[in-house]
Design goal:
The structure holds two protein chains of two kinds.
Chain A (H helix, E strand, L loop, with lengths): L2 E5 L3 H13 L3 E4 L4 H4 L8 E5 L1 E2 L2 E2 H10 L8 E5 L4 H7 L4 E4 L4 H11 L1
Parallel strand pairs in A: 1-2, 1-3, 3-6, 6-7
Antiparallel strand pairs in A: 4-5
Chain B lengths: L30 E6 L4 H9 L8 E6 L9 H6 L5 E4 L4 E2 L4 E4 L4 E6 L2 E6 L9 H13 L3 E5 L8 H9 L3 E5 L7 H8 L5 E3 L1 H12 L2 H5 L3 H4 L2 H15 L8 H14 L5 H10 L1 H12 L9 H17 L7 E5 L6 H14 L8 E7 L2 H9 L1 E2 L9 H7 E4 L2 E4 L1 H6 E5 L11 E6 L8 H14 E9 L12 E5 L4 E4 L38 H13 L3 E5 L4 E5 L17 H4 L2 H17 L3 E6 L8 E10 L5 E10 L1 H4 L3 H9 L1 H98 L4 E4 L5 E4 L1 H7 L3 H4 L7 H4 L4 H13 L3 E10 L3 E12 L8 E8 L1 H30 L3 E6 L4 E4 L1 H7 L10 H5 L7 E7 L2 E13 L6 E9 L1 H23 L3 E6 L5 E3 L1 H6 L20 H17 L1 E9 L4 E12 L5 E10 L1 H41 L2 H33 L7 E3 L1 H15 L4 E6 L5 E3 ...
Parallel strand pairs in B: 1-2, 1-8, 2-5, 3-5, 8-9, 9-10, 11-12, 11-17, 12-16, 17-18, 42-44
Antiparallel strand pairs in B: 4-7, 6-7, 13-15, 14-15, 18-20, 19-20, 21-22, 21-25, 23-24, 24-25, 26-27, 26-30, 28-29, 29-30, 31-32, 31-35, 33-34, 34-35, 36-37, 36-40, 38-39, 39-40, 41-43, 44-45, 45-47, 46-47
Helix pairs in contact in B: 1-6, 3-4, 4-5, 9-11, 9-12, 10-12, 11-12, 13-14, 21-24, 35-36, 36-40, 37-38, 38-40
Classes of the chains: A alpha/beta, B alpha+beta.
Chain lengths: 116, 1333
């Protein structure tokens, strides 16, 4: 069973995503504010889904942190955000892909399936 | 016959001369062309003075004249003859009994009865003028043309007489009375001259022709009736010459016969026939005349084709590269056939031709012919069979004639050579001897063929004429091409049948070709004495043999058979091969003795028969006819020793000792036999050696012949070189003379140039100074080294640098347009401003690079100034008064002039207008002025027609030069209007200042030219200064700008000048804050469109700027915040759909409330946004009514408390009066403040809400015990779009609009809203509402 790690500070979106991925047969790890990821206190997933704008933390900083850490650098990272201008910054930060909010469940599932 | 070249039968009868295409003109009189060189003037006069003036002929004199000098010949001749003498003009008509003289420097031709001239230059002097004329004369006048060649140098005229004679005309040459015999001898030697005589005799002879039908009419009518006589003449010619002239074109033959008739003054053919028979010499002359011919190139194209196709390939087949191809063309005449051969060979070889060694020997008896051949120059008529391409390729056109190109001439070697007498050439590859043999007898033919056979290399080729053949000599030659008469030689030995030792150096003119074959004309009659001698000789003369010096038997006499025994082998008449062997030894000895001693040698007692009966006596007598001709007569005599022997005693004694004797005799005979055998073998060896020697000799002779030919060629070349050299010397002398003249001219010119006072310079084409004269250096104080070679504009501190001057000089250079009196003003460091006059012209220079320009310079400053001053002064004075009046009366200023008696002596119209009919003199300060104190810009107020007028006046004192009275001049202007305007302006300015101050605008203006920058104090303040120095420049005022905007503003100002306006916003650092300042500006232009002034205003736009920024920020936040619930809504909806499809209603039911919450959240956000929009647009309407605030709070708290899990809302409400408020809006405020309190106190458990009355308002407070907020945040918390960006606080949903909306609502109610807060302890929000009065 593949594991998806999601950080998202909006509880509703987090809730919806959790249902979506669980229904599709993934194991879902939820980290509402992402600070745990910066201190490496998490279970290693098969893919990271990180919201750009977290409470007090820039999702891109988390991405950079993951990509410079040898233990996680090989794991795909997908950034999502309500702002379309984030794409280039995401790629520059080492993210493997980006998806803009709002997104359809189908789109986010397909995107994840492409990487794992 | 002089030359063999005439022995040519022209098979191409159409090309026979006399068939001219141009018709003779209708001029039934003969034209005499008289040629002489400049020195022949005496001969010409002599001829003319002996001519009867009414002969009915025209005389055209062509003389070699100096091209430079006008001939006076016509004047001289007029004295000598009664006929009219004309200097020829172009197109003059020829008339009988007139004399025409060629002018200098012209060619003359005769066309259709008119003389036509064409100019010739000095360079053409070598062109034969006489030939040129005579050739046209011959062509047009045919048999009525007569040529007379008189004294002159050179060979001009020879070709002319040939043409005249060939066309049937009659030719004369002066005899040795000629002062210069070059021309006459040349003509005569060519064989084309009929008469050689003195000028007087020529005159006489001409007279006789004048009346002759032949020259008079040139008609053949008379002759045609007498065909029988003509046939007779032809058969006579056949008998004497062996040539059948019936093959010739008859008209030509007839014409020639008539010509001879005329020359011999025979009136009819019968007469001439008789004359011919009586004078064999005339027959010969007629024969020769008939053979005069004009040969040409490529006469037999068919033969040349065969050569190219068959023979040339053979010649080059087995040839080594070093081998020379040798071709011999005997009887080549003037070389046309040689040329044809060379051209054919070159055409065949193509590019290889130049690398191939070729020699073509052309030989002829006639030296003149050979000279022509060597020159290789031919008239166009000779080239008529040649294709144009070949002419172009192998000929050069020289003076209307064509010369064979040098490479061809180089391979052709021409020499005089007698085919019958001189040794032939040797080792020849090809001999072309066409149409020569047919004129020769059988013996001569055989001789020539032998010579050819000798000359040819084995298996080489011989070409003969169409009607010729090798005849019986088939053992020597084999036919290769029967049709074209081409043969090859067989390998048989031949000896040359030539007498090599008697080659005459020069042939006399009487010699004929077939001299050797000449048969005595008159046979000796039978003589009885001779017959008797013959009988006696045959009966009694002893056997004798006559041999020549080569021991060839010439004659046998008597019964010689006893002594002869022809040797086996080749038949020979050689003595030693004919006699019996026993005699050989004796005969050789005897002949040798006779030859050396010169007397008869005798040998007796030879016993030929060995029988002892008869003894033989041999006597050899040398017979010498001449130095060369030596013969030997060998006489044999038989004796019987028994009967007639003188030594009887000896014989008697002999009988006694017979046996002994017989023995000895036998012995001796044997010895003798052996000796004889030995001798014989010796003899044979000797003969063989002799033959070898002879053949070697022959070869040497041939080689010698060849060398002589080459030597002759070289001599000719040498002569040509010499003549060229002489010409060069003459030219050199002339050049030296010119040089001298030139030097004189140069000295002269230099003298002038150096002595004249005007500066003069000579420029080269690129305007560099070639030379300058002394005056130039003196005037402009320059040194030669600083001037020569430098460009005109660069010298002397560029004092001559002037675009105009340069332009003028360029015109001279390019178009040769000289200029005169071209003025240039220039400044000189030592002379000051000067006006210089330039004159220039282009000097000579054959080409551009040698072009020189003479530039003369004249300093006309003084003259110029004086002239101008004078002229100007007069003009000025003339118009001065009038102009002054006009000015004075039309100027707006009033002028009055007052004398010392205070009387107005002058006033202009403006003065009268301004002052009305008063004078106001007392106001003008006249007295001070007259004392010398000037009044300046004094303002005076006057009353005119009840109106106040302001005047501004100036006065000055002047002195009338005539009367010496002092006058005061007062000028004034009416400044009433200006005054008024100034006042208006002042008040406008004040108004403006008020407005500007009200708008807090700074004003400024900038003088773009001077950079002076004026501005109001407000401007300085806006730019962040408390005070700025008045003289500060524009850039100084930028000092407080934020760094990134400094350039922006500077650029905007610099672009202002171009664009005309500016509108820019920038940031300025003020003491406590950064302010946004906006500047509007405009540029002002002068009449020429240059910007001169800029002005504008500036003002603070910070507030607007900030709100703009907030708006942008808000939109971003709003967008982001709206998307968040939309994302979850979209996600939930999708899930719901899936679940419903799966009929998983249980799960769907769980999702639905979550979806509902998100929709509610979204609705709240949208409501907030709508409120803000309403606030912004001023559309928020309040529905005020009297309410109890405590009731309102209770109601709201009751609603919220239900939703709260943790917080307890505690109320502390005091009684409050009713307020006038919108219930919904105030409730919104309360809910907002409570939800904020909950949001920012996540850890607390209660929130205190209280109300109280304070003076005339009701105050509501909501206190939380949460995180509180710092000072900074507290200040902004009610600002629109404020959102706490402190990331340490967990963000709650919402855009931070709540407090802004709340504050706005409260403010609209006339209340206040504020906050107290302490970080970590919590915040208290207050709002108050006024209590209505």
């Amino acid at each position: 069973m593949k594991t998806v790690l999601i950080t998202e500070d909006d509880p509703a979106i987090m809730d919806a995503l959790e249902i979506v991925f669980t229904r599709s047969g993934y194991r879902v790890l939820t980290y509402p504010n992402g600070s745990a990821l910066l201190v490496n206190e998490f279970d290693k997933p098969d893919i990271f889904l990180i919201d750009r704008q977290l409470s007090g933390i820039d999702g891109l900083d988390i991405c950079r942190h993951l990509k410079t850490n040898p233990e996680t650098s090989k794991i795909p990272v997908i950034i999502f955000s309500a702002s379309p201008h984030v794409y280039n910054h995401a790629i520059a930060a080492g993210a493997d892909d980006f998806i803009e909010k709002p997104f359809s469940n189908k789109a986010v599932l397909e995107l994840v399936a492409r990487y794992i | 016959m002089k030359t063999k070249k005439s022995i040519k039968k022209d098979t191409n009868t159409d090309k026979l001369p006399g068939q001219s295409k141009s018709q003779p003109p209708h001029a039934p009189f003969p034209v005499v062309g008289i040629g002489a060189s400049a020195g022949g003037i005496e001969a010409i006069m002599n001829l003319l003075s002996n001519l009867s003036p009414d002969l009915g002929m025209a005389y055209v004199i062509v003389q070699h004249l100096s091209p430079e000098h006008k001939s006076i010949l016509p004047e001289l001749l007029e004295k000598k003859t009664a006929m009219k003498v004309h200097q020829v003009t172009d197109g003059i008509k020829i008339e009988a009994n007139n004399v025409y003289v060629i002018p200098q420097a012209t060619y003359m031709i005769i066309v259709d009865g008119h003389l036509s001239l064409s100019g010739r230059s000095r360079a053409d002097k070598r062109i034969p003028v006489i030939d040129h004329f005579l050739e046209t004369l011959a062509n047009v006048y045919q048999n009525t043309a007569i040529a007379v060649i008189l004294s002159g140098i050179g060979s001009d005229g020879t070709a002319g007489v040939q043409a005249i004679k060939a066309n049937g005309g009659i030719t004369f040459a002066q005899d040795d009375t000629a002062l210069f015999q070059g021309m006459t001898r040349n003509a005569y030697e060519s064989g084309y001259v009929d008469f050689v005589m003195s000028p007087a005799a020529i005159a006489k002879e001409l007279a006789s022709f004048a009346s002759h039908d032949y020259t008079k009419f040139g008609s053949l009518d008379k002759l045609e009736t007498n065909k029988r006589e003509l046939k007779k003449i032809q058969s006579l010619l056949y008998n004497t010459s062996g040539v059948d002239f019936s093959q010739y074109k008859q008209t030509t033959i007839d014409r020639r016969i008539m010509r001879r008739m005329a020359l011999n003054r025979q009136k009819s053919l019968e007469d001439y026939n008789r004359y011919l028979r009586a004078n064999p010499a005339e027959a010969d002359l007629l024969y020769r005349d008939l053979l005069i011919n004009v040969t040409c190139f490529f006469r037999e194209p068919a033969v040349l084709n065969v050569l190219k196709k068959r023979i040339f390939p053979q010649l080059f087949k087995n040839r080594k590269p070093s081998d020379t191809i040798r071709i011999w063309i005997p009887a080549c005449a003037s070389g046309e056939e040689v040329g044809s051969m060379a051209i054919a060979l070159f055409a065949y070889l193509g590019e290889k031709a130049l690398g191939t060694s070729i020699q073509i020997f052309g030989t002829d008896l006639s030296e003149t012919a050979i000279d022509k051949a060597r020159a290789g120059i031919y008239p166009i008529t000779a080239l008529q069979n040649l294709p144009a391409a070949l002419i172009k390729q192998y000929f050069l056109k020289i003076d209307g004639r064509y010369q064979i190109i040098k490479p061809l001439r180089d391979i052709c070697i021409f020499a005089t050579h007698n085919l019958l007498k001189d040794p032939p050439f040797s080792k020849i590859d090809l001999i072309s001897c066409q149409n020569v043999m047919i004129y020769l007898g059988a013996t001569a033919q055989k001789k020539i063929l032998q010579a050819f056979h000798y000359a040819l290399k084995p298996s080489s080729y011989l070409i003969l004429g169409k009607s010729e053949s090798v005849g019986s000599e088939t053992e020597m030659f084999e036919t290769v091409d029967k049709e074209h008469k081409i043969y090859t030689n067989r390998a048989v030995n031949t000896h040359l049948p030539f007498d090599f030792f008697s080659r005459p150096q020069k042939l006399s003119s009487n010699e004929t070709v077939n001299q050797n074959e000449k048969i005595p004309v008159s046979r000796p009659d039978l003589d009885i004495e001779k017959e008797t001698d013959k009988i006696l000789l045959s009966k009694y003369v002893p056997a004798s043999i006559l041999v020549n010096k080569d021991l060839q038997i010439v004659r046998f006499n008597g019964p010689v058979n006893t002594y002869l025994q022809p040797a086996a082998g080749k038949a020979s008449l050689h003595l030693l091969k004919m006699v019996k062997d026993e005699l050989i030894f004796e005969l050789r000895g005897l002949i040798q003795r006779a030859k050396t001693e010169g007397i008869a040698a005798k040998k007796e007692g030879l016993n030929l028969n060995q029988d002892g009966q008869n003894e033989t006596i041999i006597e050899v007598t040398p017979i010498k006819f001449s130095a060369e001709a030596l013969y030997f007569l060998i006489v044999f005599c038989e004796t019987n020793p028994g009967l007639a022997g003188p030594d009887k005693s000896e014989s008697v004694s002999a009988t006694t000792t017979f046996d002994q004797k017989q023995k000895r005799i036998n012995l001796l005979e044997n010895e003798l036999k052996e000796a004889r055998a030995h001798m014989k073998s010796m003899n044979e060896e000797f003969e063989a050696t002799r033959e070898e020697l002879q053949s070697a000799n022959e070869e040497i002779l041939s080689t010698n012949e060849e060398l002589q030919s080459i030597n002759e060629e070289l001599e000719t070349s040498k002569e040509e070189l010499q003549s060229t050299n002489e010409e060069l010397i003459t030219i050199n002398e002339e050049l030296q003379l010119r040089n001298h003249d030139l030097k004189e001219s140069v000295d002269y010119t230099q003298g002038i140039v150096e002595t004249i006072r005007e500066p003069l310079i000579v420029l080269t084409r690129d305007l560099r100074i070639k030379t300058a004269n002394k005056a130039f250096y003196a005037t402009f104080r320059m040194l030669k080294d600083d001037v020569e070679g430098y460009n005109l504009k660069d010298i002397g501190n560029r004092m001559f640098h002037s675009q105009e001057l340069k332009k003028q000089l360029k015109l001279i250079i390019e178009k040769g347009i000289a200029f005169q009196n071209f003025e240039v003003r220039s400044r000189f460091s030592f002379l000051g401003d000067r006006v210089l006059l330039f004159n220039a012209m282009r000097m000579s220079g054959d080409n551009d690079s040698q072009m020189r320009i003479l530039l003369a310079i004249e300093d006309i400053t003084e003259t110029k100034v004086n002239e101008q001053d004078k002229a100007n002064l007069i003009d000025r004075l003339a118009g001065e008064q009038e102009r002054l009046n006009v000015i004075l009366n039309n100027m707006p200023a009033g002028i009055i002039i007052v004398d010392d008696k205070e009387q107005v002596v002058f006033s202009n119209s403006a003065a009268r207008h301004i002052l009305g009919d008063q004078e106001f003199i007392n106001l003008f300060g006249i007295n001070e002025t007259l004392k010398g104190v000037r009044v300046q810009d004094k303002e005076v107020i006057i009353m005119v027609d009840n109106q106040t007028r302001y005047l501004s006046l100036n006065t000055v004192r002047i002195v009338d030069t005539e009367t010496e009275t002092k006058l005061a001049v007062v000028n004034f202007i009416d400044i009433s209007r200006r005054k008024k305007e100034e006042e208006q302006l002042k008040s406008a300015q004040e108004n403006l200042n008020v407005a500007l101050e009200a708008a807090q605008m700074g004003v400024w203006d900038l003088n773009i030219e001077t950079g002076r920058f004026r501005r109001s104090h407000r401007y300085d303040q806006l730019m962040g200064f408390d005070s700025l120095a008045a003289e500060a420049k524009l850039n100084d005022s930028f000092k407080n700008l934020v760094d990134e905007d400094k350039d922006l503003l500077a650029n905007a100002f610099s672009e202002l000048a171009q664009s005309g306006k500016m509108n820019i916003e920038f940031r300025v650092c003020h003491k406590n804050s950064i302010r946004w300042i906006s500047v509007f500006g405009r540029a002002f232009y002068n009449s020429t469109g240059d910007p001169v002034q800029a002005a504008g205003v500036s003002f603070d736009v910070t507030d607007r700027k900030l709100s703009d920024n907030h708006k942008d920020e808000f939109i971003a936040i709003a967008s982001h915040e709206l998307k968040t619930p939309i994302t979850s809504i979209s996600s939930y909806t999708e899930l719901l759909k899936d679940m419903v499809e799966e009929e998983n209603i249980g799960s769907a039911k769980e999702i639905l409330p979550r979806l509902g919450a998100q929709v509610e959240r979204l609705t709240g956000l949208v409501t907030d946004l709508l409120d803000v929009t309403k606030i912004n647009e001023g559309q928020m309407k309040l529905h005020r009514e009297k309410i109890d605030i405590n009731e309102l709070i209770k109601k709201s708290v009751g609603e919220i408390q239900r939703t709260l899990k943790k917080h307890q809302l505690q109320l502390n409400l005091q009684p409050c009066p009713q307020v006038l408020a919108d219930v919904n809006r105030i409730e919104q405020v309360v809910l907002n403040l409570i939800s904020n309190a909950v949001k920012y106190s996540p850890e607390a458990a209660k929130i205190d809400i209280s109300t109280r009355k304070s003076e005339d308002k009701v105050v509501v407070s909501i206190q939380d015990f949460g995180i509180g907020m710092p000072e900074v945040t507290r200040k902004k918390v009610f600002e629109r779009f404020f959102r706490d960006n402190d990331n340490t606080i967990p963000t709650s949903p919402g855009m931070g609009l709540g407090l802004f909306i709340a504050a706005d609502i409260i403010k609209r109610h006339g209340g206040e809203i504020w906050v107290e807060s302490e970080q970590g302890k919590g915040s208290i929000f207050y709002f108050s509402l006024p209590v209505p009065l």
